[in-house]
Every structure is written in C-alpha cells, then in structure tokens.
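Hey, sorry to bother you again with one of my protein questions. A protein chain has come my way and I'm curious about its shape. I'm sending you its amino acid sequence along with the backbone structure tokens. I owe you a coffee for this, so here goes:
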Amino acid sequence: LKGDGESLAILLGNVLDNAVKYTPTGGAIVASLTPDGVLSVADTGPGLRPAEKEKVFGRFVRVDKTGQSGSGLGLSIVQWIAAAHGVAVTLADNDPHGLIVRMRWPRAR
C-alpha cells in the first residue's frame, strides 16, 4: 500500500472503528488483502440499505441503527483520503447481514 502513512492510518482506523462500533458482541470482523490490491473489512453488524450506501460518504451523514454516537464524518474522511491516493472505496452486503468495505489500491508502478 503506497501513500502518506499518516493519512492511510486514519483511513484504515476509520474503517475499522466503524466495523467495531456496529458489530454486536459475539459478531465478527474480518480484514483481508488480495494479491491485486483490494483490502476488505467485513463485519456482521446491521449493514446498510441501498439508499444508505449511496449517501453514507457524505459529511455529517449518520444512518445509525444501534444508538452509537459519532460525528457522521468517519466515512466522509475515508472517501476523501482514498480519493487523494487513487483508492476506490465500495460498499457491499455481507450476507446474511453486515457490511463489507472494499478499498482497491492502484497498481504500484
């Protein structure tokens, strides 16, 4: 993973913080990295509806279903740092419930 270390630490910290915040006790969080540069963080939290996935990267947007506190900036910051590093961030369902955050890094030259 190439880029500014401090910024990437914030990006990864925010993704992991969300996974921890929304995964219930006894749930699971799994991080994986593929050879082609896709880092995924999957959790077994409540997940997001399709309409929520479209807006969750906005500033101050919260779609909390668990009563957790937060500013609504975490994923907005993730998106901003990712864009600055050429990283594509996508959200997918983690069946039967939960969310997968996928971050695709550009190929190193």
About this structure: The chain has three helices and four strands.
